[in-house]
Amino acid sequence: MPKVLILTGDAAEDLEVFYPYQRLREEGYDVDIAAPAVKTLQFVVHDFTPGFDTYTEKPGRTWPADVAFADVDPADYAALVVPGGRAPEYLRLDADVLRIVRHFFDTGKPVAHICHGALVLTAAGVLRGRRTTAYPACAPDVQQAGGTFTDAETVVDGNLVSARAWPDHPAWMRAFVELLRANAPVKQA
């Protein structure tokens, strides 16, 4: 059964981890969550509160990581998902994260990112000449990395499927699952 890797860490957006995790498992894929260390991760919930100029953050659910970044062999995985939240701010500094991301782009395997997950891809240097979306505050980062930012529900550019934030989940996962089915189908028993 093909495996999908989710790269995340503490302070990742709760919904942006769990929605693809459950949707991909429902589709028949094995899904591993990779983090800086094998431990219980603390996710967060970002929402909008009247009167605030930006989103607010509240504690979300916890979930165990399956594998540490240093122990990931990306060749074992058919696809990659990079959720948003605050986790990408520090994950982009991890050499193993960058190694993993570059493998998926070098091999043309499907990659999905959402929200601030774009920060990991900009640090890996894989967005040059690519079209993507992300949380709108990440537009300058995408452009500085040589990518074209498109403010849309979801954007598909070759092996890359992106979305702005959790309200875009249905379109994002619909496009990603379609790409997965074409590139790494689950064999039916």
Describe the structure.
This protein has helices at residues 14-27, 87-91, 95-107, 118-124, 139-144, 169-183; strands at residues 3-7, 30-35, 40-47, 56-64, 67-68, 79-82, 111-114, 131-132, 148-149, 154-157, 160-163. It has 189 residues and is of the alpha/beta class. The chain has one domain (3-183): Class I glutamine amidotransferase (GATase) domain (Rossmann fold). It has a seven-stranded mixed sheet with strand order 5-2-1-6-7-11-10, sandwiched between helices. Helix 1 links the parallel strand 1 (3-7) and strand 2 (30-35). It is globular and about 55 Å long. The termini are close together. The model has no long low-confidence stretch (mean pLDDT 97).
Tags for this entry?
189 residues; 11 strands; globular; single chain; 6 helices; Rossmann fold; seven-stranded mixed β-sheet
Layout of SSEs?
Elements lengths: L2 E5 L6 H14 L2 E6 L4 E8 L8 E9 L2 E2 L10 E4 L4 H5 L3 H13 L3 E4 L3 H7 L6 E2 L6 H6 L3 E2 L4 E4 L2 E4 L5 H15 L6
Parallel strand pairs: 1-2, 1-6, 2-5, 6-7, 7-11, 8-9
Antiparallel strand pairs: 3-4, 10-11
Helix pairs in contact: 3-4
